Amino acid sequence: MTGRRTSSQACPDPGDGERPMMKKLYSVAAALAFLSLAVSTAFAQDWERAVSLFNQKQYRQAIREFHAVLRSNPDYYQAWYYIGAGHFQLQGYEDAADALQKYVAAAQKDEKGQATGYLYIGLAHYQLKQYDKAIPALAKHLSLSEKLQQKPETSARAALGRAYIFTERFNEAVPVLTAAAAETKTDSNTYYYLGYAHQKLGRSDQAIAALNQGITVNPKDADSLLLLGNIHLGQMKQNPAALKQAISAGERLVAVRDDESAWSLLGQAYLFDKQYAKAAPLLDKYARAHQDSGAAWLNLGLAYSRSSQWKQAAEALEQASKLAPTNTSLLLELGYVYESDKQYDKALSAYERAYEASGKSDESARSSIERVKQAKP
């Protein structure tokens, strides 16, 4: 998985989830008003006080009051709903899931109540990164909503799709996220995850289409720009035009998020496009942030070498050769740099190392050794 938004960011936080939760709870309270007529005035007052505290967002006090209701009237299973909702708002997701499980177990004849209960059970497990538990609960919410011919909660499909992704069930994620994107149309996160799922399934064209839709919604979506650029970069051998698209995505990314991932993407894209002067400063920043990456130093060395900056090229390639001492191509490049700078002893040493690394089979290394020996004064 990429370094994309965390699971807690991908799912609505308690503030975002409060409006649908509160709306459904008000309907539960209205239904319970009739039931309260059949019990004592004292109990009715206890119930109303608990509901009032909940509606005032005094969740801890409300939870205590609803537990008191259950102690005196265990059949009032609806109290578990409020208890679970209160814990959810307080981000006590384990307690929320536990209470709501008790609610749905008791509400067998109330499918509307179950649909809402399963929604928040799923979201609670999602927030806990318990995706295997979130999936069946969220799927149950969607199936019950379909059965009741009512619109499911908007966040449910998005959370379910992401839960599938985080458990690497990409085939199952695609239809769910496609439906979620069709419902909202303005959530760049959903388009990103849809593009990511397609990319993991090897469907580059569909991935690009989804990511472009997300970028249309949010032109500064750095994660989508990064993934889009990397997909285009991977296509350049089959489609040379994709390199320009990778550069475009990389340039937009650097303007939004000037970090290591942006330097790597745009630096490599410029390097492959032979824009060496533009590639070098980006690759230099990336290599210095990744001192132990031979590939990073090699790319930097190539950018300097191809722009005839021999000293800088030699420094970068020497660093790369320390990390990858048997890389024949790297050593040949190092020899070329020293030879071009007329440092023949160092060039000869690099070519000889390349020849040894190849098992004395690389013809380019052998001929370079002979050429440098003849060029030496």
Characteristic key phrases:
Serine Threonine Protein Phosphatase 5, Tetratricopeptide repeat, 0% strand, elongated, 377 residues
In CATH, the architecture of the largest domain is Alpha Horseshoe
CATH class of the largest domain reads: Mainly Alpha
Number of domains: 3
Report the total helices: 21
| Nearest-integer average pLDDT | 90
Low-confidence stretches are 5-39
How many strand segments? 0
Tell me the span between the first and last alpha carbons. Answer: 56 Å
Assembly form of the protein? single chain
* Biggest sheet details: none
Give the overall form.
elongated
User: How much of the polypeptide forms β-strand, as a percent range?
Assistant: under 5%
> In terms of structural class, how would the helical and strand content be classed?
mainly alpha
Order of helices and strands: HHHHHHHHHHHHHHHHHHHHH
Instruction: Using the coordinates shown, work out and report the CATH topology of the largest domain.
Output: Serine Threonine Protein Phosphatase 5, Tetratricopeptide repeat
CATH superfamily of the largest domain: Tetratricopeptide repeat domain
Name the helicity range. Answer: over 70%
Write the layout of secondary structure elements.
Blueprint: H1 7-10, H2 14-36, H3 41-55, H4 59-72, H5 78-89, H6 93-106, H7 111-127, H8 131-147, H9 154-166, H10 170-184, H11 188-200, H12 204-217, H13 222-235, H14 241-256, H15 260-272, H16 276-289, H17 294-306, H18 310-323, H19 328-340, H20 344-357, H21 363-375
Helix pairs in contact: 2-5, 3-4, 4-5, 5-6, 6-7, 7-8, 7-9, 8-9, 9-10, 9-11, 10-11, 11-12, 11-13, 12-13, 13-14, 13-15, 14-15, 15-16, 16-17, 17-18, 17-19, 18-19, 19-20, 20-21
